[in-house]
Amino acid sequence: MTEAGELGWWGVLFAIFAGAIRVSTPYLLVSLGETITEKSGRTNLGLEGTLVLGAMCAFATSVITGSPWLGVLAAGVAGASLGLLHALICNLPRVNDIAVGIALFLLGVGLAFYFGKPFIEPRATMLTGISLGFWSDHPAIRSGLEVNPLFFLGLLLAIFLQWSLINTKWGLYLRMAGESEDAARAVGRSVQSVRTYATVFGGFISGLGGASLSLFYPGNWNEGLSSGQGLMAIALVIFARWNPVRCFYASLLFGGASAIGPALQSVGINQGYYLINAAPYVFTLGLLIYSSSASYRLAGAPSELSLSR
Amino acid sequence: MISRRNVLTGSAGLLLAGGSIFSDRVLAQGKKTTTVGFLYAATRNDYGFNQSFAVAARRIAQLPNMKLIEQERVPETAQAERAMESMIQIDGANVIVGTSFGYWPFILNLAKKYPDVLFVHGGALWKDGDPKNAIGFRGYMEEPHYLCGIAAGMMTKTGKIGFIGSKPLFFIFNNCNGFTLGARSVKPNATCQVVITGDWDNPVKEAETVNALVDQGVDVIVANVDSPKVAIETAERRGILSCGYHTDLSALAPKGFLTGAEWNWSKAGEFIESWRNGKPYPNLQRGGFSNNMVTLSAFGKSVPKEVQDAVLKAREGFVNDSFKLYKGPLKDNQGNEVLAAGREISNSDNAFKVNVKFLVEGAIGSTGLK
Question: What are the beta bridge partners of residue B195?
């Protein structure tokens, strides 16, 4: 151990804070996507594949066209296509959405690795960060506050989705399809089409999470890029109780917890780094256990979800 | 299966007990094309460990009468054994180069089954009693890390450099010690912040680590992970300097790249040549600069002449073995004496190196081992 230099202990706190913003964006976008899909009564476990395919498509498009925002769009479209595939297969009778999700997870990753091979070496034009550190002349603070534009997109989306779930007709249909198929049919809505839209929309947003990985942070394309972040984001949805704004907080918390390990080690605290690096998972587990109950179903869980049925 | 050729090879093998080379094979294969099969655990253009082998594969393919076949993303499971066997049976491979550490048990199985095939493995695990048609080799990367450390020590403005390690393993500690010792040989009060990520490959954590190090004032890093691409690109974006690992990474950081520690796996070409010409070859080969097992990346544009000269001068010390990496007086970073004044550890003292569980004085952090 040593006295920390430069920003010192404030640097550790700052690194955790800046890390929370840097790391959280893909978790936020994927968990928002999954929230919408699950609200309609379906689980799409394939979002890890969507995330990886989105990352690859975004990177490849940015390499070829030179426009990172076209890359973001491509990631969304790739995600939406996988979502559509999931929805169409699940619309068939007696198909299990969990199993289809796992199949699409593997398909998405496989496609991304196959088509992504020529894009490991080239460099893409990155998304430009939004500078919130202009007030400081400390380079560490300035660079830590270069915030991912997709982070703000995710924040706005979380607020918008929260509002529209409660206040719009489409929000009502979505919740109805997830809570009671009979009620949805009684008002003349096709449950399947609502779920199809929800899964496509969820896939689109999750794909954007991939663009955040490959075009902003860490900002390149390689096969280990996601390493399970899409799966963790799906777990975060349960943690956030299917609530978009809570998805935002949960992602920030998770991102911050992931930054603790590197931040502490950078000032020389190496004791038990495997444990510290497991902090986000321990944290999530702890909160889930704290808030769980054997006697009632998870608050907020859509009742048509195969998880809660 | 009994054929005339197998019987001949078998009986001749008895006659030549102890020597693994049989002239019949030389006559049969000497002028014919040798098919060399490379197997990688991930993609070969990963700017990392796999690429270092892919570069060597291309050099070996330049040798006369050599044909290269490759397979990527071969996991370290029984699937590796199947992949190697199909290379031998379907593609007619005469030489198998297994690049990943975990292929070794499968190589041992197949080496017994296919005595006419040469198996080369990037990990010095061969021991007495193992098949003679298997070779294990691996370079001492702490030597080029020492040279990177010299460049880092001369270039750092803050006196703080950073080492990012993947797993708490002896060779990672050796590299970290080399890097730290090199820096302190030119800047005695320099310190090296050590971060062990715990993963071979975790881009987000590696980027996060570089950011945290830069926030602490570190201005030169080296990353000992499977693919240092993310770490080096992040360092470049944050405007600090970086050293490479595994293969030439200068393209990733046009501004901040200093130099890098590289494997020289193309050494396998020499083994293959000896084997197919019936000359003796080693079964276990370790080494550093003195026997050309490791190399140094070309210097980046930002490296001034005097730094290059200092690095190349120190390199000579390893080449002619006049300089010893571990020599007394040497303390670890807990203040314990490791080597008393006057004691020296030979650069090829493998027994000492595999038991390194300390970080030298000047390294900030711990091995994480108890």
Answer: B164
The reply to whether A294 falls in a domain is no
Question: Was domain B142-262+296-364 assigned CATH 3.40.50.1360?
Answer: no
Chain A residue numbers with beta carbons less than 8 Å from the beta carbon of B191 are 2
Interface test with B, best of A214, A265, A270, A276 (most B CBs within 10 A): A265
Instruction: Please choose, from the candidates B179, B187, B157, B144, the residue with its C-alpha nearest in 3D space to the C-alpha of residue B365.
Output: B179
Domain that holds residue A34: 26-241
Tens of pLDDT along A289-300? 876 766 666 667
| Residue A264 counted as domain residue | no
Question: Hey, is the C-beta of A91 within 8 angstroms of any chain B C-beta?
Answer: no
Q: Out of A144, A270, A272, name the one closest to residue B215 (CB).
A: A144
CA distance A87 to chain B (A): 31
Locate tokens 């203040």: which residue?
A: B335
DSSP β-bridge partners for residue B284: B136
Interface confidence (ipTM) of the complex: 0.85
- Give B283→chain A minimum CA distance, Å: 34
- Any alpha helices (H) in chain B, and if so which ranges? 4-15, 23-29, 49-61, 78-89, 104-113, 142-155, 170-186, 203-215, 229-237, 268-276, 305-319, 350-354
Mutation target among B50, B161, B166, B208 for the A interface, most CBs of A within 10 A: B208
The rounded distance, in Å, linking the Cα atoms of A164 and A159 is 9
Q: What percent of chain B shows pLDDT beyond 70?
A: 91
> Whole-number mean pLDDT of chain B?
91
Report domain extents, chain B: 4-140+265-291, 142-262+296-364
| Per-residue model confidence (pLDDT) at position B31 | 62
Find the helix packing angle between A47-65 and A191-215, rounded to 10°: 50
Closest partner CB to B368 (pick from A219, A223, A270):
A270
Alpha-carbon distance of A283 to A262, in angstroms, equals 17
* C-alpha separations of A70 from A57, A150, A155, B203, B295 in Å: 10, 13, 21, 24, 41
Instruction: Please indicate, yes or no, if residue A305 is contained in any of the structural domains.
Output: no
Averaged pLDDT for residues B138-167: 97
Of chain B, the percentage scoring pLDDT greater than 90 comes to: 86
Topology of the domain comprising B4-140+265-291: Rossmann fold (3.40.50)
Residue B287 has pLDDT above 80, yes or no: yes
In a 3-state reduction of DSSP, which class is residue A148? coil
Beta strands B34-39; A146-147: pairing state:
unpaired
Return the half-sphere exposure (C-beta side, CA atoms, 13 A cut-off) of residue A158: 26
For the segment B66-79, the average pLDDT, to the nearest whole number, is: 95
Averaged pLDDT, B179-208: 94
